[in-house]
Amino acid sequence: MTKVSSVAALEQLIKEKSVNRTADKKYISVCGGTGCLAGGGNAVIDALSKELTNQNMDIEVVRTGCHGFCERGPLVVIHPEGTFYNRVKPADVPDILEKTIKNGEVIKKLLYRDENKVEYEKEKDVPFYKHQMRVVFENNGHIDPEKIEDYFARGGYKALAKVLGGISPDDVVDLVLKSGLRGRGGGGFPTGVKWKSCRKATGGPKYVLCNADEGDPGAFMDRSIMEGNPHSVIEGMLIGAYAIGSTEGYIYIRNEYPLAVHRVKVALEQAREYGLLGENILGTGFSFDIKINRGGGAFICGESTALMMSIEGKVGRPRPKYIHTVESGLWDKPTNLNNVETWANVPHIIEKGVEWYTSIGTGDVSNDPWGGSKGTKIFSLVGKVNNTGLVEVPMGITLRDIIYKIGGGIKNAKKGRTFKAIQTGGPSGGCIPEKFLDEPVDFDGLTKLGSMMGSGGMIVMDDMTCMVEVARYFVDFLKDESCGKCTPCREGLRQMSDILNRITKGEGRDNDIDTLYELGRVMEDSALCALGQTAAYPVLSTVKYFREEYEQHIKDGYCAGKQCTSLIRYTIDPEKCTGCSICAKKCPTKAISGELKKTYTIDQDTCVRCGVCFDVCNFNAVIIPSGSEIREKLGE
Amino acid sequence: MVEIKINGKTVQANEGETILEVATREGIYIPSLCHHEAVAATGACRMCVVEAGKAGRKKKIVTACTFPVSAGVEVETSNDRVKMNQKLVLELLMSRAPQAKILDEIACRLDLEVPRRFEMANADECILCGLCVRVCDEVVGANAITFNSRGADTKVGGPLMESPEDCIGCAACVYVCPTDCIKMTETAEARTIVKWDRVLPMKKCAECGWPFMPNFQALQFRKMTEVPKEFFSLCPDCRKH
Q1: pTM here?
Q2: Is B125 domain-assigned?
């Protein structure tokens, strides 16, 4: 492979490679993201390749990145028709080749069926995908992330060619500024403003960093971008480096993402081989290269200054940012840090233009980069919804559309489960109740509701969720992940954790809610970094919207979500119990006894309150009294 | 020089100076614990919080020890918001160091009634201000002690909480500790830094016999300063004669 020596040569190369992915080309894409691989994706890919060779069929199998619908994996899509098969096993491969590839028949049993048993043939018609707007994720289903040629074939590095072909660095900064792109890592700071300040900053060398230390529980969009389309991040960083005037970059990836580390490494090597990284790129005199820095497992290293400390080889502890990192960051040099998703947006803005980008999203950013939220955002939709996975949606979509159209509504709605709250923004985010579901999702909208965009976590909770327990879970997570440097975060979280643990055990005190509120206010004001400043949001937002649940726990020992095991009992309603014995069979501690076709009973001393009996009972006969209900029903 | 306002009073300041430096010069009291002029400011304890910002803009709570002033900055050191923050920071610190006199003194000087609602931490009076760690690194150059673990479990000590082998027993940490939680004992034979479990034999003055510094400290200082070998054979007093 030879180095590409000029912008014209790169454009020619992209054109040549594009024949590999024309709109009518037949190929089979199999998801090779971590989720689908865990579900046996590799075996499906191997079986497909083997069978195609055996049958002498000249059809390409592409091991792509994550398609987003992880719970349905392994996923197989047959192009150009877009036939979508889910939960595919190696044993299905002969059928797929025989029926679908050769005869164009659709195999019904591999199709996706929604909660109402409706079948969908094409990927684009599946509700989970239909209501999404895939820009950053668009290529994930089509390209092999370990082949740069695949990225070329989908028009990759066109934006770089465009920029190096004759847009001045100042104009690149201006384009990004006008696009209204805001930081996807959580802060929502206008990317163009950051680039402009870093470009203006004196001294050097200047550094360009990519924050890939994605640590929010349940969030994995950055991982999926790196695993599925690493060149989009590299291309974004190249454009950023050119605009800012930097020659050296780092991608800080958490070491818990081995596949992402591997694929980014391969991508960097391939980009170097083509001369897209290194000295004198495309003969333009612009030089830039990227190193990978692997994180050691501390959540706090996703904070910008802690991340820089970590790259410097020091303990990852944040420092005050009164002097911005764009002026004095890594090794006290001007440093521009953006998140993976932010970088991956940049080539699209350059390629498709500011007008196209600003047509997506909310507000008006033509005069004020803070005036709205533009483009798309990827969320990881998890929790009590029917469809979980990664969803890319335009800014401004309502929470209701995400939960009900894409997510397919609340899981087990037929069993009576209803929506209670949605937690957005990761562990520091807030819980939003039903009455705000029609509010638009964008940076400012979510902040107004006492939550935040964060890096894009979305956890849907149903009526069987205890909001005090939710707050306790996140506060305990943050308590463990606080670096321990500043007093409000370290000590405040410890006290919050003590109080919340007491409340969930039924040992709450009258003034606990006030104390929690006071701790939250001071942490928001006084903590050193964003982790501490936002750490109280799960508590403040649940106190704000679900105060009665706190009061019930404290005053009555009542847990409305029936999750706090110290405050609940499982018992069987004799009028509903049919004596089918399934609960007794499934009970792990043999706490349930009775005779077939007669009422079963639960021995409270042996019961560990795991909830298995409640889940398996088909007659809603297992009931969960709490607080005063226990006294009424059980006489305890 | 730039003009800034502290508590409504216009004062002159050098651009880039910290609020704490300006306030100290102007005789305005701002309490601090993790700050010491011998080491770089770190903004860890949050005791020196003040409200600051440009006129007409939303004011923020910042730490006076690290916030650099610029023209037009307005600072409030004791309004209700600042007091609420100071009071809770003090209460939180008292849950680690209930015996520390300095916390009571600050509360007294700020005229704050600090409640004691919180569960006590098993912290041996250490408030994790990190002054000992920074002095050991930045001033002494021994870099013998560090923070171990993280979050509420953070503890200061030698690496992995072993007795620090690089500790020269200079006692700079004992001197700077604001809560006085680093104790030292000394006999004619040995100096012990109790908190680090570090025992160092003493060097005796060749002339008067006074055990004036640990052997190891003399050795390290000689390496660092390149003074003649005989320099540390005498105690400071005998050296004068």
Answers
A1: 0.93
A2: no
